[in-house]
Amino acid sequence: MNFERVTLKIATALVVIFCFIACDEDYSDIGGEVIGNPTEVDYREVDVTAWSRKIKSVQTNILPNHLLGAYHNEIYGLTEASILAQVSLANGNPTFGDEPVLDSVVLNIPFFSQAVEDAEHQYKLDSIYGNAPFKISVYESGYYLNNLDPGSNFEQRQKYYSDQQELFEQYIQGDTLYQNGNYRPSAQPIVSYEPTAGGVESDTVVSPPALRMKLPVEFFQQKILDKQGASELANNDNFRNYLRGLFIKAEAVNNDGSMMLLNLAASGAGITLYYKYDRAPTNEEEETTRARRSFKLNFGNNVVNTFEGEYPDEVLQAIQSSGSQGGAENLYIKGAEGSMAIITLFSDAAELEELKQNNWLVNEANLNFYVNQDMTEGVNEPERIYLYDLNNNRRLIDYTYDTGGSNTNPLNSVTSHSTRLERDEDGSGVKYTLRITQHVNNILNKDSTNVRLGLVVTPNINITANAAVRGSENDTINRVPLTSALTPLGTVLHGNRSEDEEKRLKLRIYYTETNE
């Protein structure tokens, strides 16, 4: 009898377990939330309108990092990125000692890199695009970079734009300070010999890989050391008017090259002057000796990226022929000199009003941006794209609600809202998924404004600040996310008029009917 009761209990438990398993197969995990009672979850596709716009010029003197080099994209053609940088004194009125004579001058800007685990002094470069050589040249610039805008009575920061290279080149002064017609970024560590505190000996220092070039001793001897005690070095205001900056120009070699992202404010970035001077004796028994010393010039707060390059005619024509009235077959988005996509949800006003009357519980709303693989074969595609409120130039509420942010790993940050590029087994891009559930819910159920959305390429989705633009066509675009200027990568996405109906851009809404 007891055995029968135990058997009955076991059988009942198994039935319950199997019921849970069966039910679990019907559950849907949409937007990271399990929806109980899946029979009431419905799905609807809503038409949207999407088109592309070329961004002709973007403010670049507020960027956290800057591009340098030449990069050829199979779709968008060649982009050349150069840098005009202020130079500043670490401290005003520096002293170099008696009879200072330069030995060498080194410009150094560290690459973004990672140390190889369990390997001493081995590194893997990051944020390098392409692998072909390019030409790099350095010049003294006579163009004065204002920190504040005279047109605003010096109350606002001066804006400098990516299309001003022709202007800057008019102010190049003197001979070329450095030139390498076959430069290619290297992962080799930098070995330098730094003077000790006493200046008699040197220490060997091994540093991570960097853009490193030797500049002419004669120029900096006359420009810096020979000016010891002069008014030109008294303070940074005087100095920035005296040595107004360096223009680092990049040019393609055989219509190709490589491009690197640099942080000119990084530790180790700057121009170091190595020199000898007469060191006075510390007691009567010592004699005057020649000692070694170094002096560093930093890059100033005003650093401007310039971009040179033209889209192929067929791409420009495709962009210009698209618009808000009908959308586009393809969406062209690219960083640097750039293009972006504009998306309008609920293109049909009558449909929007109908949806508002339904009182749906929106479980998930998403946009799947499919890569046009017929056009992107062999292209190095961006891992992330960024969707934002274009009307107000701010991030969407779904971005804010995503708790998966990571300052240390931006590539995998905020991926519930905006996924990384999904790829085929051969590495080619498939799609990006943008979940905008709360944004859509607010439009349908809280009477929020149906704002235009902007879509750009981003190498760091954690940075959502904006930069001013000028010269954009139509659509009154006056600002864009500044991170789009930090990468030369681009892609082509299926638009709302794509011939491939399965990959055509639509808003997908998963919802539950309510009893209201």
UniProtKB/TrEMBL annotation:
It comes from the Bacteria. This is DUF4270 domain-containing protein. It holds the Pfam family DUF4270. InterPro entries: DUF4270.
